[in-house]
Amino acid sequence: MAISLSFFPILSALLLVFSRVSEAATVVYDFNITWVLANPDGAFTRPTIGINNAWPLPIMTATKGDNVIVNVDNQLGNQTTTLHFHGLFMNGTTEMDGPSQVSQCPIPPGSKFTYNFTLTQSGSYWYHSHDTGQYPDGLRAPFIISDPDFPYKFDEELVLSVSDWYHDQMQTLIPQFINRANPTGAEPVPQAALFNDTQNLTVAVEPGKTYLFHVVNIGAFAGQYIWFEGHNLTIVEVDGVFTDQAEAEMIYVGAAQRCSFMITTKNETTANYAFVSSMDTSLFDTIPDTLNWNVTGWLVYDEANANPVPELLDEFNDFDDFTLVPFDKMALLPEPDQVITLDVIMDNLGNGKPYAFFNNITYTRPKVPTLYSVLTTGADSVNSLVYGEFSHSFVLDHLQTIEIVVNNHDSGKHPFHLHGHNFQAIARSEEEAGDFDARNATQTDYPLTPMRRDTFVLYPDGHIVLRFQADNPGVWLFHCHIEWHVDQGLIATMIEAPLELQKSLTIPEDHFDACKAGGVPFTGNAAANTVNYLDLKGANESPKPLPAGFTARGIVALTFSCIAALLGLAVITWYGLADMGAASQESENRRLAQMDRDAARDRSEITEIPSIDRSTYPESTKLFNTLRSHTFKQMADLLPISYHSIGAVTFDFAKQAVSTYLATSSHLEHAVYQIRSASQTMVAFRYIWPIIHDGKPARTPNDRRHFHDYFVTNLPSSSLHPDSRSSSGPHHKLPRSASTPHKEQSGHTPAAAPPMIGASRELTVVRIPLRSAKHHFGVSVSRGTRPYNEDTYQAGTLEIPAFARRAPISLTRAGSKVTGGGGTSADGASGDPQVFYFGVFDGHGGNECSDFLREELHTYLETTAETFELGSSLKNGRKSEGAETSGDSDLSTKRKESLDNIEPKDEEDVKDSAHIPERDENGRILNPPEAPPLESEKPVSADSNKQMVAQMEQSLIAQWKDTVGGYFRRFKPEHFSLVDSSTENPVSIESVLMYSFLKADLDFVTAQARKPDPDNHSDKPLNADDILGEPAHLTPSSHRIGGPTRFVGGSTASIALISTPTPTPFWHPATPSTLIVAHVGDTRILLCNTVTGLANPVTTNHHPSSPIESTRLRRYAATFVTDSFGEERMSGLANTRAFGDMRSKRIGVSAEPEIRRIEIMPAEYSFLVLVSDGVSGTLSDQEIVDVVKEAKTPEQGARDVVGFATELVASQRHFVKISSEWIEDHET
Q: Where is the PPM-type phosphatase domain (predicted)?
């Protein structure tokens, strides 16, 4: 018979179909579920649920299209069980899904059960128990389904499971967790993290190959950050959905999520590489000291190579799975037919135990499995009442588009999973974004091809929006996949097309056998009522809610407690008024005598301490109880940890109590012996220590250190005029008339040698106000066109150690003889050259914040440096006094000879290399380039108390997280070590600056939060915002912060610190110096290059449009708006970094400074300029510098810049006004 060629396409298609059918196989697994012993982390052996007497469990594998049969034999003996095949749709076989009391009865001990289903999907999945919180005991493992049509090429396939691990069994942990003794619902923290149910995993790889990794998080609680050092990840699948390739450095895999990625190995075998999984500790309420939240494995290229220690990370930079695009390009589903809104709530019920809720309903298992109720309730199956209130069921019509909106009213993450489907994730907010508002969202706001998966992470206090099509009739759970939250009841039930199920589904007989063996009813409604399906009497219910007020029992208990208290007071009063008997009097006398003997013995171990002036301490009536458990010396040893061991409230109380007793005691040690409580003792010592440190009394609040708006220097005693000239050198231009004698005991600021002073001149140490040194400093302030000025400044010197790079050896080895024009050494009490401090503060919303920074920021810097015990950068390796002889050394002679041999170069020789700009005939620079900010040098490590530093940094970050939240939940400030004392991260002046800025900002913001809001006129008591009666914090200088009402404005700030390696001031043309700038907002700091005359900025503007800021605040990009002038703003603010602005802290408007260290060579720069944005927003950097260059003195330059900017703003306003009038006149 002849066959027409036209039939060949049809024939080939039929042959292809039949070939695929013939390839499908039946895969059978026989699982005998038993108890075994396991110790995967090497720390504790415990009973674990195994399969066929082995653990870890087998990885299930199959191919798309296969029929899978799993024969389960429960031989646990003491527990029921089930199996759920996570992520599989179970199309047409919803009875095989596995959740206990949902799609089946639990399998009793000694019973058998068969799961039989066909695979219509491929990718990464897993199987686990879905009964009574059981799977963390070990009953979980990956399930990988191959696909002949996998879209990408690879050489080899590897499976990598990650999980947390507990040492206790779930049947022990769950009752402890859901317990009245745990009212906050703090989840148990795991003891370890595992790779493939072990630790120190090694994976052998070959060079130049592409490996497909299937990563499955089979854990109970912790999400995992995963990265491979030296290798990039190419994501190709999540939760069984193939995706377009996406490159990632790190991925985040929540509990129950899966991710497949490809890694191409390197072409050489010279090294092995670590890969790490780090548990997401933000989920943990507490972090035990013994917890190692990381687990490490290695890609082994060569077993002969050592396996390296993983590098420390500054932050987690995980890939955002919301941006993935499905490979099949499935379009956004249409507008929903049904919207289900679920609010996540964590709360307590009437029994005092913590539970989890969707819309105030906590899931309680029905008496009859929900699927069996669907099949046995006839037409009533479409009524959700049949399934009971506490199964929280929603009936879905067949083929409808369903939208689930989940609003998180909890402060933790939740990975939500839907059985029987994957869903389109069409919206996910950042943290703290609040509930979803459908009024502000349309179809066009969602991705055209949304990513799909079956488990999606919801962020704290945020929301997600999910869509799927109800095309798979069955009973499907929607729940958080943190197992503790499942146990607490964070579950809803989707009843999908119940009438369709009744037509098509038949339950296997062995499923009913499990119900019979366990005594579980399998017909009727949720209450097992088979007569009236809407009668739920006798159904399982959750505990009753907490009562709204006092119960009768509570009222009775309170009444009797009050009566008992009154009787107790009466007895105490009666006893106190009674005469003391002779025996009691004698006993008391012996006790007092023994106390005196003990005190005398302890005082013998203590150096004598001077008396305390009682007049410097306030009177009070409170006294501390007697402390006799520690000597003074022992308690002093506790100082490094004292302040940070307890809260600030206790600290303030202890200060008052100690001061009170000091007012009644003549010696300090008596006060010490009057403290008994250990926690209060440590706080009190932190307060007392400055009093006895170095044997000198401490400064009281009335004798606090005032800001040094002067500098200390040497002036010739014979100088009669500020411009006195001498034949030995140029004039010094320091104002003798403004100088005052400087005494060492009045401060630790060291003396500095004046420039150009000859060696023969007798020198006197004097103070000179910086404002008076007009040849070296100038300032000008103007309110411009505003009615008042919110900007301010500060300039002077700080009492902090030097941070300059040590002077070159050629400078330190010269003899003491000083030639004309040299400088003379005059180290002060601290032995360091003084550090100069300049700051400009630009307030907004008022001047309260900028004034606070002017008066207090320098104190935060000094206090932090002192508490860090920061050392000087100049101390190491300094020569002892007298080590060098006077006169020129050999080195000096050689240096002179070298200088004589140097061939001078003229302007033309250096013009090209110096990049000198072209100028016009008036000397103006033509087309000045817009210079980027100067590059920062690396921090220079300084000696410090690293343990103290780490504790202070951790405490500060915890305070930001707990007080403000939002952005600060993931806050990891630059230059913080945040690890133990073995860290390699340097503690430096940069660390001090970062801590000081953040601490000052926290104090200011919390102080405002404690004050009444003048804009809130509700009926609240006047002290409603007070905490312990304190409406404001105290600064390190003991000043209160701000005024009586809440200030919601803020301030930007830029400060410059200048340190020199020698006592010669930084303005001396032969002096190198180190400039460190800390900057927040859009205030500006500029340097003028001496050679080119160009402006070199050392700060950047922290605006929403800045690349640095848009990256830092990418999670809060939704708050960025563009105003009518085309400027981008964040929550109405022009700056994304600022002090104050308390209403915008949660979205990232922080005061973490941008810090730069600039090493300045002698005469490299002509001058330094600090301006507020009123100037920098009007004039360009080069215009500012050019105006200053034309002035004769810095003071004139400051006035000219401010005046020019003010005039320019006024002329612009005038131009706009005239233009507006012209437009109106011409009706254009």
A: 776-1228
DSSP class of residue 840 equals: E
Of 685-699, 764-778, 1197-1211, least confident by mean pLDDT is 685-699
Distance (Å, whole) CA 828 – CA 826: 6
Residue 733 in tokens: 């231009």
| Phi, psi torsion values for 23, nearest 5 degrees | -75, -25
Pick the closest to residue 123 from 98, 155, 157, 96 (CA basis): 157
> What's the helix, strand, coil split of the chain in %, to 5?
30, 25, 45
Dihedral Cα 1133, 1137, 1138, 1140, nearest 10 deg: 80
For residues 39 and 194, give the distance between their C-alpha atoms in angstroms, rounded to a whole number: 11
* Average pLDDT in the chain: 79
Q: pLDDT confidence of 739, banded at 50, 70, 90?
A: low
Q: Give Cβ neighbours of residue 658 (< 8 Å, ≥ 6 apart).
A: 624, 671, 675, 684, 687, 688
Three-class DSSP category at 747:
coil
Q: How far is 1147 from 964, CA to CA, in rounded Å?
A: 10
Q: Which residues contact 890 (CB under 8 A, 6 or more apart)?
A: none
Degrees to nearest 5, angle at CA 735 with 731 and 737: 130
Give me 389's structure tokens: 């209130």
Largest CA distance in the chain: 134
889 close to 815: Cβ distance less than 8 angstroms? yes
Give me 49's structure tokens.
């649920």
Q: HEC states along 923-983?
A: CCECCCCCCCCCCCCCCCCCCCCHHHHHHHHHHHHHHHHHHCCHHHHHCCCCCCCCCCCCC
Give the integer Cα–Cα distance in Å for 547 and 349: 9
At 1221, is the secondary structure helix, strand, or coil? helix
Is residue 998 within 8 Å of residue 1152, measured between CB atoms?
yes
Q: What percent of the chain is modeled with pLDDT above 90?
A: 47
Element (H, E) at 1089: strand 1084-1089
Task: Give the torsion through C-alpha atoms of 534, 535, 537, 540, to 10 deg.
Answer: -20
Higher pLDDT, 1046 or 398: 398
pLDDT digits (tens, 9 = 90+) for 1140-1192: 888 888 888 889 999 999 999 888 898 899 988 878 788 888 888 888 888 88
Question: Which residues are 341's β-sheet partners?
Answer: 405
Residue 667 DSSP class: B
Helix (H, G, I), strand (E, B) or coil at 178: coil
Task: Tell me how crowded residue 868 is: count the other CB atoms within 10 A of its CB.
Answer: 24
CA–CA distance, 531 with 544 (Å, rounded to integer): 27
pLDDT the model gives residue 37: 97
